[in-house]
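Long-time lurker, finally posting.

We've been working with Xylose transport system permease protein XylH (Actinoplanes sandaracinus) and I want a structural starting point before designing mutants. I don't trust myself to interpret raw outputs, so I'm hoping someone here can both generate the structure tokens and explain anything notable. Sequence follows.
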Amino acid sequence: MSASTTLPAPAASPQPGKKKSESGALAAYLGGNMKQYAMIAALVVITLWFQFDTNGLMLLPNNVVSLIQQNAYVFVLTIGMVMIIVAGHIDLSVGSVVAFVGGICALMIMQWDVAWPVAVVLSILLGGIVGAWQGFWIAYVGIPAFIVTLGGMLLFRGLAIKYVGTTVGGLPSDFNALANGALPNWLGFVGNLDAVTVLIGAVAAGGLAVSQIRTRRELVRNDLRTEPFAAFVGKLVVGIAAVGYLTWLLANSAGGMPIVLIIVALLVLLYSFIMNNTIFGRHVYAMGGNLPAAMLSGVKTKRVNFLLFVNMGLLAGVAAVITTARAGSAVAAAGQNYELDAIAAAFIGGTAVNGGVGKITGAIIGALIMGVLNMGLSITDVTPEWQMVIKGLVLIAAVAFDILNKRRGK
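Top reply, 14 upvotes:
Generated this for you. Predicted structure of Xylose transport system permease protein XylH:
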């Protein structure tokens, strides 16, 4: 009798709960990643505003190429600066190091008869030596990075003035092409589009899709936490669309794929892998998140700090080569405020002021925001002093948003 009177549960009743659970998970995911998506939204809004305000000049293909070439040094320096800040340090010397190393690079080519490819390698190594010098005082002597790099800012600016002096110009065109040139178009054109650029863009989009799908499958296989499926699909679609649109713009430009963009892209991929998939990267995050706990867990903090500043020096050497090639000459005044640009880009891109949190890709978004502001304000004839005011306000707003978001999450 009891069996006959027991009613089965309605088949449709679990479904609304499931949908509610999925929507709740998506809302929680978006809320937890508000900073990241807010910065992407800010980049889109700022770009569209300047596109409207300049009557379409902002996103002309040749202007996009100029944006990449003019801000390549910011991208490179920001990669290293993120790692430094995540570990709980700061580096104020990178602009002066760029001037010093760039000047020595030009002297090697023009006065010491060193072949420019050799000079490029030696310049990057010189940057690494500078980083090792500063890293020694920070890691093994225990002087705060702020003090050491402040001293380095003065020291290497003085050396640049001493040894470079007046402008060292007349650099070879092949060397200058590192920052100003594009990949040769070996494949001709697809309609009006540069075929080499189209091919690289297609490979990049495909690589992005494969890597994201593979990563998600690996997380699911190991029963680890993953983002909601809707967020995953949305992020992948937007990423592929962004790569496709950038490819279309570059393929329509006068030269095609900029060489310096390939350099920056390879560095972003390399350092994203290092920070996300290596023991060294985990140690950097651990030190910034909780230094005493990292030391108790066996992290060799002195070695990690030393290597961080060696790496920053190497990247400053790369930025020095790019800056010198972009200008076609070396001057002692090069690199002014470069350290401020890199630090601002890191913070705008979501790197925590107190360390422990930050991503290479987020910092690149921050660098793009700085670059778009620089170009957009220049096109609209905003005077330099007001450009500085606006960029300063953007930096303060980004850090304030980060702090308020953390308080809201507690």
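Before you design anything, note these points.
Confidence is low (pLDDT under 50) at residues 1-20.
Strands lie at 189-190, 193-194.
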